[in-house]
């Protein structure tokens, strides 16, 4: 297919605009990255733009040696891994029956699920429920209140409906149970949708901090985002930088940048492995049904 000169110019212009917007989106991240590798003096004097000044690893060394950072990183990692596994498992177990026409009452159950997307109990009632269930100030407060997402249930249900019924009928003739059909046939075929909702849940768990502020009083249960919030907003850090107060104030700026980069990299590493499933999963799961 041949393009006219005007169409080629239009394509080049569109690519240039996309490139410019991409650079604008990356600019803050690159700036913080440069700050994290720069000296304390260079950061505070405003010399750092997009390249490190007086390159040093000192900020990262002090951040990774901090016990509070290590504990918060561990909590966030456990929450993300366990929470994502629980979310995906419960979503699959709920969405699969809703995709079957022979299940009685499935439309009413689906209506109740969709209803929660428009109306919810609110922050204070949810807090009271969490407290009455004994989840307050416990790790389970991160996992159970948001164990199922109505939006992701609908995506999985629509995807399950796209699986050919002939495959399930053949497996049932061969003596396969409903559980066997689900785990041996449906789940392997639904990996794009499962990877999509897993990415949604993983990012949500990793970035979440508000539930920790509401439901957790023990600082040992604070996730990484609460640690960053305390460090950035209130300059609260347990890192022993120096006895000199002036240098300590200078150091906090570099520590902020290093902590931000350290908290961002893990989720950036996971995303490329799921990217190939992402577009296909969200597209099929949103238009089927």
UniProtKB/TrEMBL annotation:
**Gene3D superfamilies attached to this UniProt entry:** MetI-like (1.10.3720.10)
One GO cellular component term, please give it: plasma membrane
Pinpoint the ABC transmembrane type-1 domain residues.
Answer: 73-273
List, alphabetically, the PROSITE patterns matched.
Answer: ABC_TM1 (PS50928)
Q: Please give the Pfam families that the UniProt record associates with this protein.
A: BPD_transp_1
Kindly state a single biological-process term from the GO annotations of this entry: transmembrane transport
Cellular compartments annotated: Cell membrane
Keyword field contains Ubl conjugation: no
The record's keywords, sorted A to Z, are:
Cell membrane, Membrane, Transmembrane, Transmembrane helix, Transport
Membrane topology, as annotated: Multi-pass membrane protein
For this UniProt entry, what is the primary localization, expressed as one broad class? membrane
Task: Give the top-rank taxon of the lineage listed in the UniProt record for this protein.
Answer: Bacteria
| Residue ranges of the TM segments | 12-34, 72-96, 108-128, 140-160, 181-204, 255-274
Family matches, as SUPFAM superfamilies: MetI-like
Q: Indicate the family of this protein.
A: Belongs to the binding-protein-dependent transport system permease family.
**The protein's name:** ABC transporter permease subunit
